[in-house]
Amino acid sequence: MVDVVVVDIDGTLVDSNYHHAVAWAAAFRECEVTVPVWRVHRAIGMGGDHLVAAVAGQRVEAEHGDRVRKRWAELFEPMLDSISPLEGARELLIEVKRRGMALVLASSGKPDHVEHYLDVLAARGVADAWTTSKDVERTKPAPDLIELAIDRVEGDRAVTVGDSIWDCRSAQRCGVPCLGVRTGGFGADELAGAGAVRVYDDLPSLGADLNRLPLENPT
């Protein structure tokens, strides 16, 4: 049986993806790099160590990467207080624990952002552990964060929950089934194509279906 559930935070538990997209796009513009916001949104969910090159190319990463990341963090910071939990977020976390499974929140976010979200979700007394971008050398879509999350609770059979194709690909790379939710703006076909074994419109729908947690790893 599944003994640990690893849940993404940004876009999955808190409604933050569009805040991130706007902040990243503005940071690029300040560095005189024009990137359409829709393109940035398609990259939300991967870590900042990958995002600049993914949306603007290796030359921009080499010339402006650190500056873009610095400005994104500065522009995003004032938005934190306007970010709220998605419907059913805390209820899902509580239900996972009620069923006797370990719960880890696995985020590629900055440590101070994750700390803020833990407070917004009132999750400190619910989650068994959590991760941030500082815990690994490579963030999503690399598998490192999910592998670390499972190790922290000595899990054996895990399942992940995420809203982006990068969550799905990260899970697939470490052989863990991923349940996709459309809360971050990615389509059902996109999530399934990236490896999600099932896709839900929202967290209440997923929570009502926990009895059907996948028992087989994706092939």
Question: What does this protein structure show overall?
Answer:
The radius of gyration is 16 Å and the shape is globular. It is α/β, with parallel strands linked by helices. 46% of the residues are buried. The mean pLDDT is 94. Helix 1 packs across helix 2, helix 1 packs across helix 4 and helix 3 crosses helix 4. It has ten helices and six strands, in the order E-H-H-H-H-H-E-H-E-H-E-H-E-H-E-H. The chain folds into two domains: 141 residues, HAD superfamily/HAD-like (Rossmann fold, 3-Layer(aba) Sandwich); 65 residues. Helix 6 links the parallel strand 2 and strand 3. A six-stranded parallel beta sheet has the order 3-2-1-4-5-6, with helices on both faces.
Map the helices and strands.
Elements: E1 4-7, H1 17-30, H2 37-43, H3 48-56, H4 58-76, H5 89-98, E2 102-106, H6 111-120, E3 129-131, H7 144-152, E4 158-162, H8 165-173, E5 178-181, H9 188-193, E6 196-200, H10 203-207
Parallel strand pairs: 1-2, 1-4, 2-3, 4-5, 5-6
Helix pairs in contact: 1-2, 1-4, 3-4
Which structural traits does this protein have?
2 domains; single chain; 219 residues; alpha/beta
Number of strands: 6
Q: What is the CATH domain class of the largest domain?
A: Alpha Beta
How are the strands of the largest sheet arranged?
Answer: 3-2-1-4-5-6
- The number of domains is 2
Question: What does the largest sheet look like?
Answer: 6 strands, parallel
